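Summary for the funding panel

The consortium committed to producing paired sequence-structure records for every protein in the target list. Below we show the first two records in order, beginning with the earlier of the two.
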Amino acid sequence: MSSVPHIPVIRLGRNYESLDKLEIKNHSTGEVIATVSSVNAGIIRKDFKKIGEGRAALKKFTVKQLMDLSAKAGDLFLNGTLPFGDKGHTQTPQQYIETLSLTSGLPHVMVKRNMTKIHYALTHLDVILNGLSRGLDMSILDSGTGEQFGTKLSFFPTAAALGLVMPSNSPAVNSLWLPAIALKTPVVIKPGKEEPWTPYRLIQAFMAAGVPGEAFGFYPTDHEGAGEILKTCGRALIFGDKNTTAQYANNPAIQLHGPGWSKIIVGEDCIENWRDYIDVMVGAISDNGGRSCINASAIVVPKYAAEIADAIAQKLGPVKPTKPDDEKARLSGFANVKMADFIDAQIEDGLKTPGATDVTAKYRDGSRKVVFEGGTYMRPTVVLCDSFQHPLANKEFLCPYDRLQPRRQRHHEGPEVHR
C-alpha cells in the first residue's frame, strides 16, 4: 500500500488514475498529504455522453428510497470508515477532520461543525425537499404525473446532471448539492483545489449506502474543464469571487455563489439597545473563521458607530491563532499564502484613504497577518468607515473582516461598521 494516498478521478462510478496529478500539501509544513489525479475537458466531454447511465440507474429507485439511502450515507459520512483513494487506504471520521484541517487551515472544531451540518442535511431531506417543492407529494416525481391540491401536475427533468464547481473555503457548501441524488439527478463535481476531501468522502458514503456509482462524477480539472461542466450539464452551481461569477451573471442555468455581501442593519427603534446585539454581531463576523458567504461584511447603524465598532473590536481584536485541535479555535489558516498577502495588502492600502480606521489595531498585540507554527493567519479586522464611498466600504474577505459605518440619511450621512 502506497504511503501517500492517491485520490482518483471518479468517472461515473469508475476510478481513474491520470498521468497528470496534483499534490495537496499541509498548509503549515508543505508536506504532501495526498496526490489527486486531474483530467482535461476532453475526458469530461467523453464521459458526459454516458451521463444517461447515471440517470437511468437512479430512476430505478423511488424518491423515498433515495432519501432513505441518503440518510444512511449521512450516518456513514459522519461516523463511518470509508475508502480514501484507490491504493488501499481508508479514512475514519477523525482522519477526515485532521486531513481537511491540515490542507485547508480550518481548525478541527470548525470541521466538526461543518460535518454536523452536512449530516443534518442528509438525514432531513424530507424536510428540505418539502420546503423546496412547497409540499409536493414526492411520489409524483416517480411517475412524472399526478394530482395534488385538486390540480393535475407533471414533472420532467430539465437537465442531464447537476454540475458543480466547488470552492475550498468551507466544507458545508457541499450540502447544497445533496438533494440532487434524491431527485434522481446525477452530479458532476469539480472539487476545490485544496478541498477534494469532502465531496470525495460524500461520494464514498453514498456508494457505501447503496446509491449507484454511475450517479457520480468527480473531476479535479482546470478552468477549461470547469467551463465544460458548467456548459454541458444543463444546470449548475459555481462558487467563486466576483470576477469568476460575473462571467455567468446572465446565464439562468447557472446558480452563482459568490461574495455574500451579508449585512446587519440596526434600525432607529433598536439602536439605543445596541449593547444587547454585540455578541450576535461578533458571531456574524467571525463564526466559521469568517469564511462563510453569510458572514457579515458590514454593520450599518444610524448612530453610535464608533462605540459599537470599539465594543466589537474589544472582543475580536485579541483573537489569535491556536493549535488546530484547540476546541476554542476561532481562526483558520490559509492554504494559499498569497491570498493572505493580498487581503492584508488590500486592507492596508484602503486605510491610506482618509475616512477609515482599523479599530481592532489597538486591541491586537502585533500584526494583522501572522505566522503561527508554520501556518499563515489573518487576525480579525474591524474598520470604521465614514462613508459608503470609501474603498474599504464594499470589501469582503475570507477572514473575520467587517466594516462598521453610519447609515447615510437623506441630506445627512451617518456611520457604518465594516468587517
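The next record, for a separate protein in the list, is shown here:
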Amino acid sequence: MLLLVLVLLLALVLAGVGFAVHLLWWVALAVLVLWLLGFVFSAGGRSHGSRWYRW
C-alpha cells in the first residue's frame, strides 16, 4: 500500500514538472516573438548603425 502511494505521488510530481516545463516553453516562445517584433519595428525607424535597445 505504501509503495502504491509513493508511485502515485511520484507520478503526480512528474506530471507537475512536465506541465511547468511545457508552460515555460510557451512563455519563452512568446518572449522570443515579442523580442523579434521589437527588433523589426524599431530598427526600421532609426539610422543605420544605431542600437534599438537602451543598454
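Regarding this second record: The radius of gyration is 22 Å. Residues 2-43 form the longest helix (42 residues).
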